[in-house]
Amino acid sequence: MERLPGDPARPDVSLRRTLVVLRHGRTAWNDAGRAQGHADIELDELGHAQASAAATELALLAPTRIWCSDLSRARQTAAPLAGATGLVPEVVPALREYDVGKRTGMTFDEFAAAFPDEYAAWLAGDESLTVPGAETTSDVRARIVPAMRACLDALGAGETGIVVTHGAALRVGVAGLLAWPDEIDETLAGMDNCGWLRLREHTRFGHLQLASYNQCAAT
């Protein structure tokens, strides 16, 4: 169809970049409801199955780069994806989960019993009182948003990259990349183990859009 004089050129959707953010597969601590933080917990049997199923689907997106946290559960989730694509995952420590300090390994009930004041502050979203050694959301935002932005910036026109990271930290990173107000990341439901989301560039304005959320492969 002939374009009339003065008509703007149609944006080329094939040139937009896409960043897929994948949460790691299940661990025994996930199953037990224990806070993992920086503890280096490996995937359980179901977690490995979830990672394999996700890799089969995500390989169809023809990614050109894969990045992952340095913790075992993220690296093990990235391994089947590497096998399906032939890509070597690039390890980025800044993609780690929140450090939960002395709360590491605790269930919510154990957290409430051991640190009642800190637990009450956590429920209220008050980060002025945290358990010893724990990162605040501001701490996590300061490291994960630049790391995820660097992943996006490393992609060429039309390319797709995959970031393998952790449930709580990814909400903070995604909200930061979308330039949402600080509080709004809590409005995102928690991602399932091996769930993923897609961020893609707007074809006209260049900013990112949340194109899908918590997609999961059948296991």
Helix content class:
25-40%
Average per-residue pLDDT, rounded, comes to: 93
Q: Assign the CATH class of the largest domain.
A: Alpha Beta
Gyration radius from CA atoms, angstroms: 19 Å
Structural class: alpha/beta
CATH superfamily of the largest domain: Phosphoglycerate mutase-like
Strand order across the largest sheet? 3-2-4-1-5-6
Strand content: 5-15%
Order of helices and strands: EHHEHEHHHEHEE
Terminal CA distance: 46 Å
Q: Mind telling me which CATH architecture of the largest domain this is?
A: 3-Layer(aba) Sandwich
Q: Please tell me the total number of domains.
A: 2
Instruction: Give the overall form.
Output: globular
Low-confidence stretches: 1-7
Sheet with the most strands, sense and barrel status: 6 strands, mixed
Your description of this structure?
This protein has 219 residues and is α/β, with parallel strands linked by helices. The chain folds into 2 domains: 13-97 and 135-215, Rossmann fold, CATH 3.40.50; 100-134, no CATH class. 35% of the residues lie in helices and 15% in strands. The chain has helices at 28-32, 45-58, 72-85, 108-114, 116-124, 137-153, 167-177, and strands at 18-23, 65-68, 90-91, 160-165, 196-201, 208-215. The chain has a 6-stranded mixed β-sheet, with helices on both faces. A hairpin with a 6-residue loop joins strand 5 and strand 6 (208-215). Helix 2 runs parallel beside helix 3 and helix 4 (108-114) crosses helix 5 (116-124). The protein is globular. The protein starts with 17 loop residues before the first strand and ends with a strand. 37% of the residues are buried. The model is unreliable at 1-7 (pLDDT under 50).
